[in-house]
């Protein structure tokens, strides 16, 4: 019988020398977040983070949509690991939560079915002439931010409190399903009570609101949203989450998965246009941030360089509550010059 | 000829009844108890099913029988191991003290499943989630209700089979008495809070004993307790210090959502100790995941004997049992021990 | 003006026990409290005449009424022929025919 319960489970995180692999969705939709992560690791924490320009998508979305075969994704993952081995790194740092789940799943498969590992080695050799080693550790970027939360806070003179009232900001967190629900040992706190995000918010001065549907999936799915006919399923699941968190009037939502972030952000707009309803009092929606964006804000980065204008739901309400120093009018400037503003939605205020 | 001596390990209901019966038959009894109280779990209960009479009557009756010249109670003594030498038994306590007797009766009973192992129910995290043992303590005035008494509507749920019939907890067996305990506690709650809505989430209603099915009927008709067939998936915190539960109503074939002021987990029984034999020694050890109860020689005639001459067992250490069964078992074990001592000595 | 994106949010199908029962249903239970005794053993449906040809299963509509899902209760109750065989066999003594008559009178 385990003496420690899952909710106190601490994951082992290496301190340095990471091989970084990007996220398809995060770099397409929220590119500022990903570059902020690298900036934080290199410029603030002075860590060695290596990024190979030849690395690719892990094809997780394709695999989960039954478009990419199991053997194919194993070989693609093997190629990523081959690049990592070539560069001499042993710690894999993954930006996307789905990707993180894919790597864990494939390592588990290779561990239990060594013949699959052998087949993959042969496939990779035939296709690219490369060889690879299994990494010593695999962590997600939110794990690393959590691990270094005190160091990041040391650089910051910001706390997650309302600048006017002095009360901690109310935050709601949403951890991606692939982070710890598949392999509880892959996440801080196991499957039921992961604390990688709530721990961040609390140590940075905010208050975490535990709402009834905290564990509910955001509905991102993969095949559920690729086809328009199926998208209602994704929308309905996010709606369950919004209905559940609305009574608590949170100041922002924190996610670690780029897909969850996109959907919790995007569906607020969709539901507002479809049903005329927003989940905050002011009709502006609840801002949704990723862990890198929150860390970037703690470090005082310019929100528009951080890419927060790419979010569907505006972040100005949150920044104003923090008493943040930023320029409202430069939101849609590119290279210092004003550009065409995006079209305004009819219900959601921006 | 010197008096026959028996060591009884455990002063719960089985140990107390056995000690009294053996003493009345002229046998010197040393009764070992690791805590400083006798009565075992019974001393923490409030009422007994199915009659709903107070547990204190039975506790007093069993404890008063200790007042016998043939019984020596040794409290705060934990037993580490025992072995047989030349037909006699030697018991060694955790402090190294040695005690000799002609036979040994194991009456170590059960412990309750630790509810925080079912982490999705949030025991230990949400104050509104309590176990059936906590509810008995609340009725006994030792703990407070985890809600304000003036709350309306007051909604309380009871979940059967927590830690029992559950391969994921390592306990595939049924803990037998939790169903009737749930009905008993649901009625107790309704008597205390007549306006409350009480829900029992069950898989089966195991009302095996005399008067149990009638108690179930009373719960439905007189107290309007709702019985929902289906499991709970999780308890999450909700506004106003309540918990939101998700369950399946298998008879309706639909999920259920309900916000409760208190959730009671009917925790099952697990064995207190494992008995491990190493060469000639028997050690009392902590259980590991999936360990079952102690096995007697056979379930019928040899149900009080262990597979070793002079070693006997009675009560819940063999498996989940109700109080009448445990007391009967103690009487039976005492008879077996008397017969054994007559043939051997 | 609401935008049509080509997909919709699906209605949630879980039973919300926090919603109180309608006053009509509460009245039925008040007039016939033996309806609470049902344990869905299925004996009534096993012997039911109407059950051979229709979806009428007394334990089912009684359970639906208890859970607040009463849309089809009246319609199904009206399929009963009042033969009374169910009441002969009910092990819990539920007054099924009275329950049926009350349910047929729902609006």
Give a brief description.
The complex is a heterotrimer of chains A (350), B (345) and C (107). Chain B is of the alpha/beta class and 345 residues long. Chain B has helices spanning 13-24, 55-64, 132-139, 178-192, 212-221, 323-344, and strands at 5-9, 28-32, 47-48, 53-54, 71-74, 79-85, 88-93, 98-101, 103-106, 110-112, 129-131, 155-162, 197-202, 226-229, 232-238, 242-249, 254-260, 262-267, 269-271, 274-278, 281-285, 311-313.
Topology, pairings included?
The complex is a heterotrimer of chains A (350), B (345) and C (107).
Chain A: E1 18-21, H1 24-29, H2 31-44, E2 49-50, H3 60-64, H4 70-87, E3 91-94, H5 97-112, H6 114-128, E4 137-140, H7 141-147, H8 149-155, E5 170-174, H9 177-180, H10 196-203, E6 207-208, H11 223-226, H12 231-245, E7 252-255, H13 258-275, E8 288-290, H14 291-298, H15 316-322
Parallel strand pairs in A: 1-2, 1-3, 3-4, 5-6, 5-7, 7-8
Chain B: E1 5-9, H1 13-24, E2 28-32, E3 47-48, E4 53-54, H2 55-64, E5 71-74, E6 79-85, E7 88-93, E8 98-101, E9 103-106, E10 110-112, E11 129-131, H3 132-139, E12 155-162, H4 178-192, E13 197-202, H5 212-221, E14 226-229, E15 232-238, E16 242-249, E17 254-260, E18 262-267, E19 269-271, E20 274-278, E21 281-285, E22 311-313, H6 323-344
Parallel strand pairs in B: 1-2, 1-9, 2-5, 9-22, 11-18, 12-13, 12-18, 13-14
Antiparallel strand pairs in B: 3-4, 6-7, 6-21, 7-8, 10-19, 15-16, 16-17, 20-21
Chain C: E1 15-16, H1 23-31, H2 43-47, H3 58-66, H4 73-77, H5 85-89, H6 96-104
Shape, per Cα inertia axes of chain B:
elongated
In round numbers, the mean pLDDT of chain B is: 94
Order of helices and strands of chain C: EHHHHHH
Rg on CA atoms of chain C, Å:
17 Å
Major β-sheet annotation of chain B: 5 strands, parallel
What is the beta-strand fraction of chain C? under 5%
Residue share in helices of chain B? 10-25%
* Structural class by SSE content of chain C: mainly alpha
Report the span from N to C terminus of chain C.
35 Å
The domain count of chain C comes to: 1
Please give the number of β-strands of chain C: 1
Kindly provide the radius of gyration of chain B, computed on alpha-carbon positions and rounded to a whole number of angstroms: 22 Å
- Strand order of the biggest β-sheet of chain B: 5-2-1-9-22
What kind of sheet is the major sheet of chain C? Answer: none
| Classification by helices and strands of chain B | alpha/beta
| Second-tier CATH architecture of the largest domain in chain B | 3-Layer(bba) Sandwich
Low-confidence stretches of chain C: none
Average pLDDT of chain C works out at 93
Write down the secondary-structure element order of chain B. EHEEEHEEEEEEEHEHEHEEEEEEEEEH
Largest interface: B-C, 19 and 18 residues
How much β-strand is present in the residues of chain B?
25-35%
